[in-house]
Amino acid sequence: MLVSDIIHSALRKIGAVSAGEVVEPGEQQDALEALQVMLRSWSAEKLNVFSSVHEDFTLVAGTEEYTWGVGGTINTLRPNQVTGVSIVDSSGITHPVSIIDESKYRLISTKATSSRSYYLFPRYTYPYVVITLYPVPADAETLKLESLKPFTESSSFGSVGDTLAMPTHYEEPIIYNLAVRCASEYGKAIPASVAAIALDSYNRLTTRNAGNQVESIGIDLPVRSSGKYSINSDSYR
Fold first, then answer.
1. Helix, strand, coil % (nearest 5) of the chain?
2. Domain parsing of the chain, residue ranges
3. Cβ 163 vs Cβ 82: under 8 Å
4. Quick count: other Cβ atoms within 10 Å of Cβ 60?
5. Class of the 3-49+151-210 domain?
6. Model's pTM, two decimal places?
7. What pLDDT, in 10s, does the model give residues 65-119?
């Protein structure tokens, strides 16, 4: 969704502009700053605002595992969820890559097979997401990644002409709460219905985010039918 469309929709909710009216550049810039301040404030409140980010990475032939996060092999902001993957070969042809879970990856018997990868298995560890490709990449082709990452102005948007790609359930709270923030600056009263939707959608977003704060951690321990396992000696007694 274009940032300018978000701004126009928010201003329309408070009657600052009509449906077909063009928002003046100066007013767009003011609303853009209000939007950025609002999203920074939400992030400070631990309310994660996610945007969809597209990135390219050059694979290393013979290497199937990569760490993803600041300081990792893929040295960009750690993603919260990998949503799409493909590989572009040297001829510019795009090849789909399926995202699989651990149970499917474990079923692969010969993991050392080398060819163009068609599976990607992400492990959401911290501080890096570890991605494993199968088959092992045979060539240094381009890995195209789509992911959800916490909002940052540098990776998400910086002008009204940019696209703010986000999950659909973010649209309502962002638009309506931006409308509330812009109302006083435009000398407009906040309609009761707008205020109610802004509060309700914000609360729903807070609840939804709270349920996604803890990521699962897998711990593999030896399986044994009897005896007590000692974490200190890494053995059973």
1. 30, 25, 45
2. 3-49+151-210, 53-149
3. no
4. 12
5. mainly alpha
6. 0.60
7. 999 999 999 999 898 889 999 999 999 999 999 999 999 999 999 999 999 999 9
